[in-house]
Amino acid sequence: MSIFESYKAPQGVLEIGGLPLPRLAERAGQTPFFVYDRSKLGERVALLRQMLAPELRIHYSIKANPMPALVQHMASLVDGFDVASAGEMRMALDAGMPARHVSMAGPGKSSQDLRGAVGAGVTVTLESAHQLEAVERIGRELGVRPRVGLRINPDFQPRSSGMRMGGGPRQFGVDVEQAPALLKVIAERDLDFVGFHVFWGSQCLDPGTVIAAQRHVAELVMRLADLAGDSLEFVNMGGGFGIPYFDNERPLDIGAVGAAMQEWLTPLRRRLAGTRLILEFGRYLVGEAGLYVCRVLDKKVSRGETFLITDGGLHHQLAASGNFGQVLRRNYPVAIGNRMDSGQTETCHVVGCLCTPLDRLADNVVLPAAEIGDLFVVAQSGAYGRSASPSAFLSHPLPVEILV
Ligand SMILES: *Cc1c(COP(=O)(O)O)cnc(C)c1O
Q: Boundaries of each Orn/DAP/Arg decarboxylase 2 N-terminal domain copy (predicted)?
């Protein structure tokens, strides 16, 4: 797989951050573990800054990977954080991100979430009329004038996107049709209105879809800008950039996306001089910088097919297993990390240690002939891995996470 070609493997042993995989396993103190690569995180942010218009601010959505050391590192690379809970908010602030560059989204914000955000001076992205009332009340109680944004459910549907999160009826944000009335209420209240947030989708690999969505968002923001007065500090235009997980997927052509931006950026800049234009990303920033590593515990043959049984599984890396039964399950890019240049291959199934047939890490995959004790590696594991997997399922130990 091409992703593994971006790693060094002297003597056939995968290296991350200059350390061979077996040393990393010692450092982790166990398998399974996730390892995240600082240099890849830095390269990804640098690529975005190079290919996109330089004035665009890049925010990181902490939910993609909330490991504290990684969040800390991201704080030095990006311009802001998007958080979805009071817990993520504390992580963002602990990492040193100024509160004015942190915004909290989420269709269901508890009063603890809101008190935390208002108290800290973080921007609360309102997603309903009820949230507006709750935030104002909390602001009064705390003697703080809340900073609020408004999340808009757009009136367009992206053509294709791994996960649509805007257009049509949604639990996210308020419909753009409802925005004028809400903006009027916000203006009358004891609230600082600071920006719009339009999030249209996720895991999109088609540049045409991203370009069309960004153009739509820009048009929508131009329409709304007149209603917002001159207080618009920022416009968060969403993200949506995907990463290739499967053999049939190609990386997003980010050059094409960057080149198409001027068309909407020029009028938007003219209309909204001084407003920060933000793109927010989760998986695109961190997904390709992480590997999941587990150890081959057993190897057996059943009716002519070879099974590698590992100490990992879907309780740590749910998405690679196929999310409890994807319609069509596909393999993530995988490797035997200590046999990267082995000529002798075999076709096998790689499974986890859980007592369910759904616990599969690779089906019918051609790999170097592995032995018990080898290190099995799943790439594209930097986002939605540990924190998005059912780790309590079967009561095995948690995976360790290291950042190198
Ligand atoms: C989940 C989420 C993101 C991140 O999505 P990715 O696909 O990881 O880039 C960004 N913004 C919002 C509002 C989200 O809910």
A: 40-286
Q: What was the pLDDT predicted at 1?
A: 47
Q: Helical H runs in 325-399?
A: none
Which band of pLDDT confidence, cut at 50, 70 and 90, is reported for residue 250?
Answer: very high
In CATH terms, is domain 79-281 a member of 3.30.70.860? no
225 in helix, strand or coil? helix
CA-closest residue to ligand 1 atom 5: 282
Task: For ligand 1, say whether the CB of 202 is within 6 Å of any of its atoms.
Answer: yes
What spacing in Å lies between the alpha carbon of 202 and ligand 1's midpoint? 6
- Interatomic CA distance for residues 255 and 48, integer angstroms: 9
Residue pair 323/285 in contact by the 8 Å Cβ criterion: no
State the Cα–Cα distance between residues 268 and 83, nearest whole angstrom: 26
Q: Which atom of ligand 1 lies nearest, measured to the CA of 163?
A: 7
* Model pTM score: 0.96
At a CB cut-off of 8 Å and minimum separation 6, what does 41 contact?
70, 73, 74, 77, 285, 286, 289
Indicate the class that CATH gives domain 3-36+288-403.
Answer: mainly beta
Q: Compute the distance from residue 286 Cα to the ligand 1 centre, in Å.
A: 12
Instruction: Ligand 1, residue 280: give the atom nearest the CA.
Output: 10
Distance between CA atoms of 290 and 33, rounded to whole angstroms? Answer: 10
